[in-house]
C-alpha cells in the first residue's frame, strides 16, 4: 500500500494535476485583458497592375503600416502574429482574403511600430476583377499564449480602391 | 490426503480470481483511455483532437514537441487561422497558417493557401504535384489551444521505440503486481 512505487505515482499524479490547473488559470487570466489596439494603413503607391497570361489580375503596391498593439500583451503572451489582408468580394467569390504582409512580435516593446513595405505575398485575384475594385484592408492579430487558449481579433479599414486601368 | 487437494484447490481459485481482477483492471484502463480519446473526437469534431508539432516551421510560435488542441467546426476557414491539413500522398499532417482564402459565392467551397510562419515561401511546394489550393476535405482541424513541451514524450517514443517498450512493460508490470 505505501510502497515506493505507490507514493511516486501519487506524487506524480498530484504534480501533473496542479501543473494543469495552473496552466488553465494562466490562460483564464487572459480574459480579463481588454485590449485597445490601433492600426493605420496607407496605400502609398500602386507599383504595377496587370493581367497575367493565365487571365488573373495581379497588383503590387507599397504600403505604410503603423500600429500600436502593446495592449494585447499580458504575462501569458508568447507572441503576437499580426498580418494585413486585402479583403474583397467578386462575382465568383463571396470572399477573397489575401494576406499582403505579416510579422511576428515577441515583446511588448516591439508592439508599437511602423513599416514601409511593398506587399510581401503576391496580390493575385482568381480571375480578372481587380480593375476599379473596392477592397478593405484588415489588420488581423493572433495572440499565441505561453499556455492555453489562442486569441484572435481584427480591425477592418474600409474604403480602398484599385485603379480603373492596368499600369 | 483430502486436505492437500483442498488447499491446492483454494490456492488455485485465489490466483484465478486475482488474475481475472487484474485483467479487468487492465481492460478498464485501456477502455477508459479509448473512451476519453473517442469522446474528445466527438466534442472537437476532429479525427485527431490533439496533435504534436514535429517540425520547426511554425517557430517561434510552436516548437517541436508542443501540443496543439484541434477543433473542427462548421465555421468557414479564414486567413490567419492555424490549420492542420493532410496532403494527398503524404502521411504526416502539417500544421501551418492560412494566408489566402477564396470562398465561392454559390457553393461555399474554399480555396486555401497556407504557409509556415518560419518558412520563407508558401506551401505550394509541399502540396501534391500541380496542386495550387487546399480544399475543405484536406483540413483536419484548426488549432485552438496550446500546451508546451508535453509532446516530447511521444516524439521520444516514436524515435526510440525501445523507450516505448520499456514504458509499456513497466506500466504493465505495475498493473499486474499492484495489489490493493
From TrEMBL, chain A:
<dbReference type="GO" id="GO:0005787">
    <property type="term" value="C:signal peptidase complex"/>
</dbReference>
<keyword id="KW-0256">Endoplasmic reticulum</keyword>
<comment type="similarity">
    <text>Belongs to the SPCS3 family.</text>
</comment>
<keyword id="KW-0472">Membrane</keyword>
<dbReference type="GO" id="GO:0045047">
    <property type="term" value="P:protein targeting to ER"/>
</dbReference>
<comment type="function">
    <text>Essential component of the signal peptidase complex (SPC) which catalyzes the cleavage of N-terminal signal sequences from nascent proteins as they are translocated into the lumen of the endoplasmic reticulum. Essential for the SPC catalytic activity, possibly by stabilizing and positioning the active center of the complex close to the lumenal surface.</text>
</comment>
<feature type="signal peptide">
    <location>
        <begin position="1"/>
        <end position="31"/>
    </location>
</feature>
<dbReference type="Pfam" id="PF04573">
    <property type="entry name" value="SPC22"/>
</dbReference>
<dbReference type="InterPro" id="IPR007653">
    <property type="entry name" value="SPC3"/>
</dbReference>
<keyword id="KW-0732">Signal</keyword>
<protein>
    <recommendedName>
        <fullName>Signal peptidase complex subunit 3</fullName>
    </recommendedName>
</protein>
<dbReference type="GO" id="GO:0006465">
    <property type="term" value="P:signal peptide processing"/>
</dbReference>
<keyword id="KW-1133">Transmembrane helix</keyword>
<keyword id="KW-0812">Transmembrane</keyword>
<keyword id="KW-0735">Signal-anchor</keyword>
From TrEMBL, chain B:
<dbReference type="Pfam" id="PF00717">
    <property type="entry name" value="Peptidase_S24"/>
</dbReference>
<keyword id="KW-1133">Transmembrane helix</keyword>
<feature type="transmembrane region" description="Helical">
    <location>
        <begin position="20"/>
        <end position="37"/>
    </location>
</feature>
<dbReference type="GO" id="GO:0005787">
    <property type="term" value="C:signal peptidase complex"/>
</dbReference>
<keyword id="KW-0645">Protease</keyword>
<keyword id="KW-0812">Transmembrane</keyword>
<comment type="function">
    <text>Catalytic component of the signal peptidase complex (SPC) which catalyzes the cleavage of N-terminal signal sequences from nascent proteins as they are translocated into the lumen of the endoplasmic reticulum. Specifically cleaves N-terminal signal peptides that contain a hydrophobic alpha-helix (h-region) shorter than 18-20 amino acids.</text>
</comment>
<dbReference type="InterPro" id="IPR015927">
    <property type="entry name" value="Peptidase_S24_S26A/B/C"/>
</dbReference>
<keyword id="KW-0378">Hydrolase</keyword>
<dbReference type="GO" id="GO:0006465">
    <property type="term" value="P:signal peptide processing"/>
</dbReference>
<keyword id="KW-0472">Membrane</keyword>
<dbReference type="InterPro" id="IPR019533">
    <property type="entry name" value="Peptidase_S26"/>
</dbReference>
<dbReference type="GO" id="GO:0009003">
    <property type="term" value="F:signal peptidase activity"/>
</dbReference>
<feature type="domain" description="Peptidase S24/S26A/S26B/S26C">
    <location>
        <begin position="37"/>
        <end position="114"/>
    </location>
</feature>
<keyword id="KW-0735">Signal-anchor</keyword>
<dbReference type="GO" id="GO:0004252">
    <property type="term" value="F:serine-type endopeptidase activity"/>
</dbReference>
<comment type="similarity">
    <text>Belongs to the peptidase S26B family.</text>
</comment>
<dbReference type="InterPro" id="IPR036286">
    <property type="entry name" value="LexA/Signal_pep-like_sf"/>
</dbReference>
<dbReference type="InterPro" id="IPR001733">
    <property type="entry name" value="Peptidase_S26B"/>
</dbReference>
<protein>
    <recommendedName>
        <fullName>Signal peptidase complex catalytic subunit SEC11</fullName>
        <ecNumber>3.4.21.89</ecNumber>
    </recommendedName>
</protein>
Amino acid at each position: 500500500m505505501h510502497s515506493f512505487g505507490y507514493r511516486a505515482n501519487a506524487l506524480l499524479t498530484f504534480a501533473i494535476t496542479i501543473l494543469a490547473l495552473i496552466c488553465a488559470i494562466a490562460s483564464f487570466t487572459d480574459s480579463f485583458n481588454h485590449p485597445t489596439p490601433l492600426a493605420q494603413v496607407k496605400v502609398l503607391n500602386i507599383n504595377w497592375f496587370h493581367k497575367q497570361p493565365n487571365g488573373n489580375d495581379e497588383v503590387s503596391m507599397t504600403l505604410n503600416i503603423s500600429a500600436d498593439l502593446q495592449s494585447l500583451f499580458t504575462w501569458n503572451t508568447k507572441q503576437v502574429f499580426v498580418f494585413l489582408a486585402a479583403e474583397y468580394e467578386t462575382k465568383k467569390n463571396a470572399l477573397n482574403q489575401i494576406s499582403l504582409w505579416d510579422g511576428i512580435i515577441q515583446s511588448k516593446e516591439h508592439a508599437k511600430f511602423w513599416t514601409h513595405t511593398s506587399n510581401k505575398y503576391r496580390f493575385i485575384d482568381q480571375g480578372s476583377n481587380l480593375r476599379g475594385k473596392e477592397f478593405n484592408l484588415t489588420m488581423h492579430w493572433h495572440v499565441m499564449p505561453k499556455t492555453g487558449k489562442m486569441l484572435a481579433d481584427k480591425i477592418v479599414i474600409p474604403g480602398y480602391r484599385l485603379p480603373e486601368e492596368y499600369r | 490426503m483430502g486436505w492437500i487437494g483442498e488447499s491446492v484447490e483454494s490456492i488455485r481459485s485465489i490466483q484465478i480470481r486475482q488474475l481475472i481482477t487484474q485483467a479487468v483492471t487492465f481492460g478498464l484502463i485501456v477502455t477508459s483511455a479509448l473512451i476519453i480519446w473517442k469522446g474528445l473526437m466527438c466534442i472537437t469534431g476532429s479525427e485527431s483532437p490533439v496533435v504534436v508539432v514535429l517540425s520547426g516551421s511554425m517557430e517561434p510560435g510552436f516548437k517541436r514537441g508542443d501540443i496543439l488542441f484541434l477543433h473542427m467546426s462548421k465555421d468557414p476557414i479564414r486567413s490567419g487561422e492555424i490549420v492542420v491539413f493532410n496532403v494527398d500522398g503524404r502521411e504526416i499532417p502539417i500544421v501551418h497558417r492560412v494566408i489566402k482564402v477564396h470562398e465561392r459565392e454559390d457553393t461555399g467551397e474554399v480555396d486555401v493557401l497556407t504557409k509556415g510562419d518560419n518558412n520563407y515561401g508558401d506551401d505550394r511546394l509541399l502540396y501534391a504535384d500541380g496542386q495550387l489550393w487546399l480544399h475543405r476535405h484536406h483540413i483536419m482541424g484548426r488549432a485552438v489551444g496550446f500546451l508546451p513541451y508535453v509532446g516530447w514524450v511521444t516524439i521520444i517514443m516514436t524515435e526510440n521505440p525501445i523507450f516505448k517498450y520499456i514504458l509499456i512493460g513497466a506500466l504493465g508490470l505495475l498493473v499486474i503486481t499492484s495489489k490493493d
